[in-house]
Design goal:
The chain has 332 residues and is of the alpha/beta class. It is 36% helix and 11% strand. Helix 2 packs parallel to helix 3, helix 6 packs parallel to helix 7 (204-210) and helix 7 runs parallel beside helix 8. The protein is globular. It starts with 5 loop residues before the first helix and ends in an 8-residue tail after the last helix.
């Protein structure tokens, strides 16, 4: 699709009234400065390798399609900044799945505007490699009083839940810190999959706080936590195992401070998941992301400090990835 031009895309958008999904992959020759006002209102937009999309183009896309948008993906979004969060908050309040990768500038107030606007719909949030993220927005008490998402904790206190539907959160290679993890524990009680690959600013205290909170029950519904390349120790794994009864796996590849015994335990669980056929939603996400890492080395840039068991797991999985790789597309 390297020769695709803007006029070709716009003709499709204007002349296909039943179009619901648009996916562009690696269209390096494209340049967008806007979106046609008479374009069809899309439900799903996937712009992979979208360094050609400017703030102005993204804003007009969201304005045109906002009322119907359910899922939007921007990868390699190096030309976008924090304004996109405000545009989504203003126009796309039905959005369920949002992926923005490599956005270099993210202001907390814009991030908070997004979560406050999409509090009742957002189920999937992927902000990998958005380096400006160090904390996580917590709903203001005044706003939370007006929401129907309030419920009682086990202690009988009111819980100001701001993202009650959020199940998948990916913050790989961000600057999220322990305070940010504490914020997540306060606002995402339904969280099932959390990925913190290569988040170097977190510690055992922050991970332990995920499953407990002074104002809520914490993220005790977690099934899979990806801590690859983080500075955690066995204490993090023990805390998650003790407080998250649904936990299937904690990924600890390249975690130098985790003991060999604990790494072997979770690597064996990972092998069973990768070899299994009847996977849960979280296990499928893990398997697909692992497969992309094996096919595209650029997706896995943790320090090369894996134990022998870690390397054996990758060698075994490389065989499976080659056998079934045709069913997975690379999304740069």
């Amino acid at each position: 699709m390297r020769r695709m031009q803007k006029k070709h895309i716009f003709n499709i958008l204007k002349n296909c009234p039943n179009l619901k999904t648009l996916e562009l992959l690696d269209c390096r020759a494209l340049t967008f400065s806007g979106w046609p006002r008479d374009a069809v209102a899309l439900r799903k937009v996937f712009l992979n390798g979208c360094n050609f999309v400017t703030n102005q183009a993204a804003s007009s896309l969201i304005t045109v399609c906002g009322d119907t948008l359910e899922k939007i993906i921007f990868t390699e979004a190096t030309s976008l900044d924090s304004q996109i969060f405000r545009d989504l908050a203003r126009h796309a309040q039905r959005l369920e799945e949002l992926t923005i990768n490599d956005c270099t500038s993210v202001r907390l107030r814009d991030f908070q505007a997004l979560t406050e606007a999409l509090w009742s719909s957002l189920r999937w949030l992927d902000l990998a490699s958005c380096r400006g993220i160090s904390s996580f927005p917590v709903c203001s008490r005044k706003l939370c009083r007006h929401r129907s998402g309030l419920h009682l904790t086990q202690s009988g206190q009111q819980d100001a839940t701001s993202l009650p539907q959020l199940q998948v959160l990916i913050l790989d290679k961000t600057k999220i810190n322990d305070d940010g993890l504490r914020g997540i524990s306060q606002v995402a009680p339904s969280l099932r999959y959390l990925s913190l690959q290569d988040c170097r600013a977190i510690s055992d205290d922050g991970v332990a706080a995920l499953a407990t909170s002074d104002v809520s029950d914490g993220c005790t519904s977690l099934e899979l936590v990806d801590l690859k390349g983080t500075p955690v120790t066995d204490a993090s794994l023990r805390a998650l195992e003790a407080r998250c009864p649904r936990l299937h796996l904690v990924r600890v590849d390249s975690c130098r401070s985790v003991s060999r015994k604990m790494r072997s335990k979770h690597n064996e669980r990972a092998r069973r998941i990768l070899a299994g056929g009847n996977l849960s939603k979280c296990e499928r996400i893990f398997a697909e992301r692992k497969k992309i890492e094996m096919i595209d080395p650029n997706k896995s840039s943790s320090e090369s400090d894996e134990s022998e068991n870690d390397q054996e797991e990758d060698d075994d999985y490389a065989i499976e990835a080659r056998r079934s790789g045709a069913s997975y597309r690379r999304r740069r």
